[in-house]
Amino acid sequence: MLKYALRRILGMIPMLLLISIVAFFLALAMPGDSFSGEIDPNNTDPEYIEEMREKLGYNDPIHEQYFRWVSNFVQGDFGKSTKYQIPVKDLILQRLPNTVMLGVMAMFFTYIFAFSMGIYAGRHPHTKMDHFIGGFNYFLLAIPSYIAGVFAIYFFSFQLGWVPFSGSVDIAVESGTLDYWLSRFYHALMPSLILGALGTATYTQFLRNDIIDNSQKDYVRTARAKGTADSKIYNSHILRNSIIPIVTFLGFDIVQIVNGALITEAIFTYPGLGQLFLTSVNAQDYPTLMTLFVMFSFLVLLGNLIADLLYGIVDPRIRVD
């Protein structure tokens, strides 16, 4: 298992290198350039602009610009945001806790909903409740996240006033206090519920179908013939084998959280990395955009690695040599 993990980690290096090349040249292919955020708005003299371009290295050959960016990136220097005029590292560290909190809460809601509905539907197949859960899951698959977000804001924020519709914390509370953390949880509750609920459908149906399939296996019939209680059969045998497909989706969980956060954070004006990414695209903030692109890609690769390792841990029949 350790050798396999090391091989996968080493294999991620050329992938990340390729991703960095794609990120760099996609930024160059976008209309305009990031220099507009570097110049003094009170000084539009062409000689001054050309002097600044030369100073910042924008006139260097493309390959020199790329290698300079990569070498700085590896050393932890992600450049300076042309929109916010602060180092990209500091900007990401400001937004990262919000996205992590949103992602963890969304995954919690996803697994709670998926396991509760999937286990019930699997243990009671072809009942009215099973059909209702199936129809509800198809509805969640069909509705776009931005439609669900707008509806949630209108109904729960504007009509009922239960949750805030924007921000990540109340500006009136003092940082580090209990009220501060409660306010952060309160602001992240609705975005995470939307993000988590929309991700439950696939997991619920996979878990339901696997429980039904495993219920008909020979080892379950043998356990029942020995007089083993149904609760023990489901909890110790059927459920453990049925959650294997769910574990393999862990890498896709990270992808889904990142992709979902792009839209959800924008709709709820939640100041996380997803909203920062969209803002960077609109503002042509290339240093921030390229850093987030590489960061999101790394999270996808890391999630797939974790999923492969957990697959061997959950299923004793599978061991990676």
Automatic annotation (TrEMBL):
One of its GO terms (biological process) is transmembrane transport. It comes from the Bacteria. It is a multi-pass membrane protein. Residues 96-307 form the ABC transmembrane type-1 domain. The chain crosses the membrane at residues 100-120, 132-156, 185-207, 243-268, 288-314. Keywords: Cell membrane, Membrane, Transmembrane, Transmembrane helix, Transport. Pfam families: BPD_transp_1, BPD_transp_1_N. One of its GO terms (cellular component) is plasma membrane. It is found in: Cell membrane. Belongs to the binding-protein-dependent transport system permease family. PANTHER family: DIPEPTIDE TRANSPORT SYSTEM PERMEASE PROTEIN DPPB-RELATED. This is Peptide ABC transporter permease.
